Request: fold
Amino acid sequence: MAIATELKKTLTDSTPLYAVAGAGDLVVEKLRELPERFRAEVVTDPKVLRERLQTLPDRTQTFAKSQVDKAKELYEDLAARGEKLVKRVDRQESTKQAKVAVRTTESKAKAATTATKRGAANAKIQAKAAATAAGKAADAAAGAVEQAARKVGDSGNKPAGGSHG
Reply:
């Protein structure tokens, strides 16, 4: 039951899911931009390269500070973007059909579980009845064998086929 509770809790807070979906969507968008961006940023002038290297520590520190705020903003943007994507997918006919199929399968699984439990209970009852019947039959057979043995034992004391003497 704890798993179901955790699952419901996780599913009700959709923000992380939306953020992941939005991140995936953003990655695809940015990957499409990369070839052009790399062509635009290639620097071959040694003076420009030296200048960039000298200012690198200051630029790195400024960049790091700005990234904290950007990360929060990006998370919120990704969540919004992901929410749109999830809602769009959720409205698709194939998603609706999948949901119906899941509900149907869940219902069938519950019915099969119930039938299996009932079948197991009936099998247990039948097995006990069969064991009891087999025990009674074995007792009766043992009794019959014992009686037959007594009769054979009794008839062995009498002369067979009359008196010869």
User: Anything to note?
Assistant: Residues 22 and 28 are 10 Å apart (CA to CA).
